[in-house]
Each structure stands twice: as structure tokens, then as C-alpha cells.
Amino acid sequence: MMPQVNPGDTGQHVLALQLSLRNDGYTYLNGTGNYSGNTLTAVQDFQRKNGINPSGIVGSKTWHALVGKLPPSLTGNGEMTPPSFGINPGERNDEKMGWLNNAVQRIYPYYLDLPEWSDTYQGRMVSIVQDFQRRAGINPSGIVGPKTWNAMYEVIAASGGWGC
Q1: Which residues of 32-42 are buried (b: 16+ CB within 10 A; e: fewer)?
Q2: Which of 23, 64, 116, 122 could form a disulfide with 68 if both were Cys (CB 3.0 to 4.6 A apart)?
Q3: 50 neighbors 71 (Cβ within 8 angstroms)
Q4: CA 7: distance to chain centroid?
Q5: In angstroms, rounded to a whole number, what is the distance separating the alpha carbons of residues 23 and 44?
Q6: What's the N-to-C CA distance of the chain in angstroms?
Q7: 90, 120 in Cβ contact below 8 A?
Q8: Residue 152 in contact with residue 33, Cβ under 8 Å?
Q9: What is the pLDDT of residues 142-153, one digit of tens each?
Q10: Peptide bond into 109 cis (omega under 30)
């Protein structure tokens, strides 16, 4: 269950909302993590089209209309569990990088410009994670810990990114 999101909010729930709306046809939304302007316009339009009071407040009815219509195979059906390990910049670990690469390639806009595969967490991949952390309202340290994993998995699920 996603929490209520209101105009003026920031963070991972707003980012999840924006990328969900983007995948629903509101392609002008880029996932800033800030609920204002274009996001409010898109939410109100989506609410009107789905018979929901166009208040701009995203509650259970709006979330259900947006995410609930997606097949469970795309949302992970609540079964996709974030990894319990962390990754620090400079760390070399093929398996951890596989998990991180798998998550990042499912989030707009990062799948448009993925760095070349590496077993070391460095360079462009660290920059991508820091950008995601900023958008999700997380300290952009580049360290992939529970907050970052949880935010990534929420965004992927809400935007229907678990498909092949």
C-alpha cells in the first residue's frame, strides 16, 4: 500500500508516482521527486479520466487506478524483496553489481544510458545512484543501503518495471 502523496511533497513516493504516470502516457514527467507544476497537472488529469475527484491528492483510489491495473508480473506482486546487503563506492563484487545493475536498468531515465558492465562499483554507476538518491530524497552518498534499495524497489514496482 502506497502512502498518500500531496502537492508540495518530495521524495521516493513522489518519484514513484511520477514514473508511474510517465509510463501511463504522461511522458513529459521526468521523475524529479518534487510534486509541483507538471506533476499536479498530470495527477488531476489522470484523476478526471478515472472518475476520481481531481484534488491532486494521491490516495488509495488514485494509486489503485494507476498501479492496481498493472499485471502482477510488472509490479512484482509484493514479492520482490530488496537485497539485505550494502554496496560502497569502490567495492568490487560481481554478484552485488549484478543486483544493482538489474535494479538501475528498470528505472527511467537510467536505462537509457547504462554504463558498461563492471564488477566494481565506480564512476558512472555511482553517479547514477547519487542522482537517484537525490530524486528519492535520500542523502546522495552513493552508498547503496536499505533506504536506497527500498526506494529503488518501490519505484520499480509502482512504475511496472519488473517485466522482462
Answers
A1: bbbbeebbeeb
A2: 64
A3: no
A4: 18
A5: 16
A6: 24
A7: yes
A8: no
A9: 999 999 999 999
A10: yes
Cell (9 digits) for 17: 508516482
Q: Is residue 162 a contact partner of residue 73, using CB atoms and an 8 Å limit?
A: yes
Is the Cβ–Cβ distance between 16 and 3 less than 8 Å?
Answer: no
Q: How many residues does the chain have?
A: 164
Question: What residue type is assigned to position 121 of the chain?
Answer: Y
Q: For residue 133, what is the enclosing H or E element?
A: helix 123-135
- The cell for 59 is 490516495
The identity of residue 148, as a single letter, is T
> Which amino acid appears at position 6 of this protein?
N
Residue corresponding to grid cell 510534486: 35
Bridge partners, residue 58, by sequence: 5
Q: What is the pLDDT of residues 79-128, one digit of tens each?
A: 889 999 999 999 999 999 999 999 999 999 998 888 898 999 999 999 99
